[in-house]
Amino acid sequence: MNPYQKKRRWKFFLLIFAILIGIASVFYTDSFVKKMEREEADQFHLWVKIQERAMFLYDNDDYRVVVETVRENTKTPVIMVDSSGVISSFFGLDSTKTNYPIADTKLTYDSVYFVRQLRQMKAQHPPDEMNIFGKKFKAYYRDSFVLTQLRYFPYIQMTVIFLFLLTAYAAFSSARKDEQDHVWVGLAKETAHQLGTPISSLMAWTELMKSKFDAEDDPLIAEMENDIKRLEIIADRFSKIGSKPILEDHTVYIVISDFIRYFKVRTSDKVKFSISGDEQVRALLNVPLFDWVTENLLKNAANAIENEGSISINIIENLAKEQVFIDVTDTGKGIPRSKFDAVFQPGYTTRKRGWGLGLSLTKRIVENYHSGEIFVKESEIGRGTTFRIILKSSLRYEPTTA
């Protein structure tokens, strides 16, 4: 199992664990809320019975204390209405408001407030019937402020936990990315430094061979020199990692064609190469780095072709968005749709001896250094794969006017 699959599995387990914690929290809070609902309902029913008998109980000093205690400890807001639906009294609501106009300036007449409160109470709980001195009343109540808070507490808790996890994930991902960038840069520059000495030696040996064996025009020596130049380019590529590369205006078709000419003679004759599309479209490129992108895509395409096959490159210009599309298509074994993103992760590979760094490095070069995009456009198992690169065109077009 590669590191990317392990990381995905751990993320999946942690996500499931977080969901289970959230569900357990919601169920526990819900059971607690239902228990409080029953207690508040019992308290309300007791309040109604006390209210019905209040006038009689006030005649007894011992019961007067009980009545006042029950009234003062009622946490649920209550509204009483008469048989015609008119609000007659209320308890536990805003003490600075009143439902009828009075001369006391300390109180605010706000009938709309009580109508709104009564509507909420009717929507939450059925009323209790009351009979006071032969007159019929209905008492409504709504949940207390504490109970209302408890209803929303698990969802607020889950939101806070989610935001915390999201922030922590973003912070750790950023720190990990910075750490990976430092490793990439250090490894690349050290590789470039290590390549310098043997390349210089190889150049000297080829010059010695040409002079000693009078082989100035020997085709084998010429190919060796081509490979040495290629090593110089590779060392130059590594040295550019971590520093801002210089982008220059180039014809995309020519850059890719030049590299294909070098690459195809070093690949199996069973793999056929072709390039098509717009031959004039231009883009800002760093040629050594972009050749690296092309090389990684062509190598992956060639490795995906088990027997005979073809690799085609099509260059398209999107005039409306001023972009260049480069499609690299092979007739290899294909990529499962679930792996379209995974193939660009460091360490992901289907080869036994591969390191899984080629496409990851390709993505970095395209996105970080050329401000472009690269993705798997389409793939079908057993039929082949198409990678698409999107670059900004260096050509600008002004709209024509009639």
UniProtKB/TrEMBL annotation:
CDD domains: HisKA. GO terms for molecular function: ATP binding; phosphorelay sensor kinase activity. Its EC number is 2.7.13.3. It is an enzyme of class 2 (transferase). Keywords: ATP-binding, Kinase, Membrane, Nucleotide-binding, Phosphoprotein, Transferase, Transmembrane, Transmembrane helix, Two-component regulatory system. Pfam families: HATPase_c. The keyword ATP-binding applies. The chain crosses the membrane at residues 12-29, 152-172. InterPro entries: HATPase_C_sf (IPR036890), HATPase_dom (IPR003594), His_kinase_dom (IPR005467), HisK_dim/P_dom (IPR003661), Sig_transdc_His_kin-like_C (IPR004358). It catalyses: ATP + protein L-histidine = ADP + protein N-phospho-L-histidine. Residues 190-395 form the Histidine kinase domain. This is histidine kinase. It comes from Pedobacter petrophilus. The lineage of its organism: Bacteria, Pseudomonadati, Bacteroidota, Sphingobacteriia, Sphingobacteriales.
